[in-house]
Each structure stands twice: as C-alpha cells, then as structure tokens.
Amino acid sequence: MPDDPDNPETPPPSRLYLPKLESPPATILEYVIASFPQIPPETWYQRVTRGLVTSSNGTPFDEDSPYRHGIFVFYRKEVPFEPEPIEEETILCRDRELLVADKPHGMPVTPSGDHVRRSLLVRLQRSTGLATLAPLHRLDRETAGVVMFSIRPDTRGRYHQLFAEATIERIYRAVGHVSDAPDRRRWRIENRIGEGEPWFRRRIVEGTTNAITEVELLKLQGVEGLFRIRPETGKKHQIRVHMASIGFPIVGDPLYPVIREKHDRDRPLQLLAERLEFVDPLSGTSRTFTSARKLSCCRM
Q1: What spatial distance separates the first Cα and last Cα of the chain, rounded to whole Å?
Q2: CA-atom Rg of the chain in angstroms
Q3: What CATH number is attached to the domain comprising 201?
Q4: Which DSSP symbol is given to 112?
Q5: Are residues 202 and 242 in the same domain?
C-alpha cells in the first residue's frame, strides 16, 4: 500500500504485528477487530472487502485469511472526521539528528484506531515537513511525556541502541491509589511479564525475569500517592502492571488491576514520562530532556 508522496494529507499506511499467542483467533480479521474495540466490526469487514487490509507485499487478505504469527498486516485508515486533540504537543528540541516532543495524554505516538492525523508522528511530520521522522520508543496513548524521534535514517540505529542496551535512563512520575499507609518508601520489582487475559492486557507470569522497575514514594496526599518510577526494562504496560502488583494502581488506569468499562475522560491515566537522560552516541555529550507537563488529577 504505497503512500502518495504528492499528497501531504494522505496519512501513511499503518501496520499491525501478529504475535505468537497461546490461544490465537482463527482469522486475521478476528484479531484486527479485537485489537481495536472502539472501531465497529462492520468497518473492518468493509475494509477487507475493498482490499484495504493487506500483507507486506500488497496482497489483500479476505475474511477467512488464517491467523499467522510473525507477520505484519497493513491497513489504510479512513476516519471521516477527526476532531483536534484537547491538548497539543510541544517540541522540546530539534537538531540535525533528533526531535524530542512533549506528548499530551490521549495522543498515540503512531496512528492507531481513529487517531490518524491526531497521532503525534503524523502531526510532527506535517508541522516540520520531516518525512523521515521515526519514533525511537513508544509511550501508551494514555501516557503523557517525553518522546524521542530520529530524523536521519543513517544514524537511527545508534540511537535505537540506547533503548535496546538500556543505556538511557527513563524517569516517570505517577499518581497511584493508596488504600493503607505503606511501611516503606522504596520498591524494586523484578519478575516476568507475559500475555494476559484478554490478550491486550499483560500479567506477571512464571519464568526468567524480563521486567525490572524501581519505585519510590515521594508524597502521600489522602488516598493518593506521588511516585517516582525508573524502569530498567521496557515491556509493554510494565509500569502499570508493576504498580498494580504492589498495591498502588495508577489513577485513571482503565486496564489494571481490572478492566473498567467506563472511565472519566477528565481524569486520564496519571502516568508521565518525565525525563530522558543519556550520553549522545554521536557527540559523546550528556543530554537531558524534561517534560513540562503535570499530573492533573491531584495537586502534586
């Protein structure tokens, strides 16, 4: 599904990786429908019928195409109306190699669901004219804070290594529910995070450690606490799962410790990617980028 390079209003095609699942669905269509519960199944049926859901070589999938892990599904999103986001991103830094942005809550890093032109990547590509812009890491749509993008493909791998080799320090802040006054202020959680139930959740499972998080309680205010969090690894939903596991689920979390069918849109997930610190692999200088955003559900 090639892009139209002459039309800046045409968003790039999105892709979805099909992971290895313990209980996979029978078809690709079933998985795609389950992946985006906010999109009516009829929309996906129409896209498949029109040949808008394809393999990497452009071959369309049909309703009966079997689920096969390890491949990417490409699809062109059609959102007839996308309102502007409530908050806008800000650019913290732009140089020859990197663009660092401060993302608001509720904005996906890359196109997702009915957020196409509202996604951080597409908005930045349009505002800067940088077609080669690519995220070096991800934040959940519900999480606000610092996101780093690579500008030049020829140096992108050097910055990817910072995350792959865990040589970049990532500092988060979160507001968590506190039912009882804790008997300590610091925790180090080391365990294994794997596939949860339903498939889009994660859970702690038996096996070799693959997720490590350090948590520090900074302040208590009634039944909420302000926490400083330093993840040493980067598993999906790691901080959210670990905070729930030690009894301090993050305020506004719709998935942990249990799925909430309804949530208050005025109280988004109170998790902020506050700071990135690293030694630049090209210049050798120390660099720090800090979010200007605040956690809004309490005055902390």
Answers
A1: 47
A2: 20
A3: 3.30.2350.10
A4: B
A5: yes
Structure confidence by residue, pLDDT tens digits, 6-29: 343 445 678 899 999 988 999 999
Q: Tally Cβ neighbours within 10 Å of residue 149.
A: 26
Report the distance separating Cα 214 and Cα 206, nearest Å. Answer: 20
Which of 67 and 1 is assigned the larger pLDDT? 67
Virtual torsion, Cα 47, 49, 54, 58, nearest 10 deg? -120
The reply to whether 97 and 156 lie within a common domain is: yes
Report the alpha-carbon distance of residue 156 to residue 273 in Å, rounded.
21
130 and 214 in a single domain? The answer is no
- The verdict on residue 295 lying in a domain is no
Q: Note down the domain range covering 71.
A: 14-75
**DSSP secondary structure, 32-57, as one string:** HHHH-TTS-HHHHHHHHHTT-EE-TT
Residue 63 identity: E
Distance CA 61, CA 210 (A): 34
Q: CA-CA distance, 64 to 253, in Å (whole number)? A: 35
Q: How many domains does the chain have?
A: 3
Cβ atoms of residues 137 and 164 within 8 Å: no
Based on the fold, state whether residues 156 and 186 are members of the same structural domain.
Answer: no
Which pTM does this prediction carry?
0.74
